[in-house]
Design goal:
Layout lengths: L1 H17 L3 H28 L15 H15 L9 H8 L1 H31 L10 H9 L9 H6 L2 H29 L4 H19 L5 H4 L21 H25 L9
Helix pairs in contact: 1-5, 2-3, 2-5, 3-8, 3-9, 4-5, 5-8, 5-11, 8-9, 8-11
């Protein structure tokens, strides 16, 4: 229990520190700016027809490579200072021990990633106010925009046809969450074991992987080797049909990569001399 309490204190301290850093808020602001034009158009359409909007826009805001890249870059802003070796870390490690300090930071990466994904899913809901209608269905407004070209835009009807709103929200949230954890672990592992800044470079490459793989290899490879594409539910194989991966494949790959990074980082924390830096 003492080990769990010490790790929890490390996690709590990291949360308190990030709340005082401007990059925490910038990570959400630029996604807000990205969402706003589409959400403003949809809200105007809802007001014009006099019908409220169902609060299920999030799965439609992660289905293009631009949005996926911005989500990855937002995650990079949150974790660019990994492995979190700031000036206060030395006394934390002395009090908690390297192992407890490490697991506290692992919990921090997972929990902050969940907070990030949850807030991103709530931003579209806030932008719908005051034209919000609470319903368990997709609703008439989203249904119209998915099946017609009423605003010069068209929502992804494949998502609407294959998933219920609750399932689509939860699955998109899970994909964003695990992608964010992966970015956090990439930064923690590479910045610790290789050199500060390598994690950021690899994270940007991950964000650009859908475009890079399409350009340099084959389009269908992106479905299997570009994690940002897994935020788009229309890319998954549906009941045996389609060229995309299954949910089982995606979760195995993401959790496997996160697991490998965790093992490498734990070995590095135990054996490596730690260099403490200024906070970013």
């Amino acid at each position: 229990m003492d080990n769990i309490r010490m790790a929890a204190r490390v996690c709590q301290g990291s949360f308190r520190r990030i709340l005082y850093m401007p990059r925490f808020y910038i990570a959400f602001l630029w996604l807000l700016f990205l969402y706003f034009p589409l959400m403003n158009a949809v809200r105007s359409f809802s007001a014009a027809v006099g019908i409220g909007m169902a609060p299920w826009m999030f799965p439609f805001l992660t289905d293009d490579s631009g949005s996926q890249l911005f989500i990855i870059l937002g995650a990079l802003l949150l974790f660019c200072d990994a492995p979190f070796l700031n000036q206060n870390s030395s006394w934390q490690i002395l009090r908690a021990g390297r192992k407890n300090w490490f697991w506290g930071n692992m919990a921090y990466i997972w929990l902050l990633s969940l907070v990030y994904a949850a807030i991103l899913s709530l931003l579209p809901v806030l932008l719908m106010i005051p034209h919000l209608e609470w319903t368990a269905e997709w609703g008439k407004v989203l249904g119209t925009l998915a099946q017609t070209n009423a605003l010069g835009i068209r929502l992804n009807y494949t998502i609407m046809a294959h998933y219920t709103p609750a399932a689509a929200m939860l699955l998109t949230l899970a994909a964003v969450w695990l992608n964010t954890v992966l970015i956090g672990m990439i930064n923690f592992t590479l910045n610790l074991l290789v050199k500060k800044g390598i994690g950021a470079a690899v994270s940007v490459a991950v964000g650009l992987s859908p475009l890079l793989i399409v350009r340099l290899a084959r389009f269908d490879l992106g479905y299997y080797f570009a994690p940002p594409l897994w935020m788009d539910l229309s890319n998954y194989r549906w009941q045996g049909y389609g060229y995309g991966p299954s949910f089982a494949y995606v979760y195995r790959v993401l959790l496997g990569c996160i697991g490998v990074c965790t093992i490498l980082s734990l070995a590095g924390i135990r054996r490596k001399d730690l260099n403490f830096t200024e906070e970013v």
